Known about the structure:
By secondary structure, the chain is mainly α. The two termini are 25 Å apart. It has 2 domains: 1-38, no CATH class; 42-127. The chain contains 4 helices and 2 strands; from the N terminus they run E-E-H-H-H-H.
Amino acid sequence: MxxxxxxxxxxxxxxxESNNAPIQQVGGKVVRNVSQTVHPAAPSMVDEVRxxxxxxxxxxxxxxxxxxxxxxxSAGDAAATIAANLDDVEAGGPALRTALRALPAAxxxxxxxxxxxxxxxxVRALVN
Length: 128
C-alpha cells in the first residue's frame, strides 16, 4: 500500500515506497482533491484460474470413463496450455486465447462441461 506524509515545513505531499502514480511527479506543489484507486492485483485472478484449472483437471481424471476419448484429449491439451502460460499471462496471451477457443468444443455435452465453462470464463477475464 502507498504511504504518504505531510511535510509540515514545506506543506507538500511526499510519496514514499514504490509508487507509480502520476502524483509522484508533483514534488513541492500544492495538491488538492486527489483521489487514488487501487485495482485488484492480477495475481489473485491468476490464483483463481489455477484453482479452477485444478478442479477441472480433477474432474477430467475422476470422470474420464464418461468422456469420449477425443474430447478428453482436447480438454487435457487445453488445460495443459493454460497451465503452461499462467506464469506470464502477457507473453502467453496468444496461447491462452487459443486454448480458450478450443475448450468449448472439448467440453460440450460432457460431464465436465460446468467446470470447463467456469475455467473458460476465468481465463477470458484474465486475458481481456
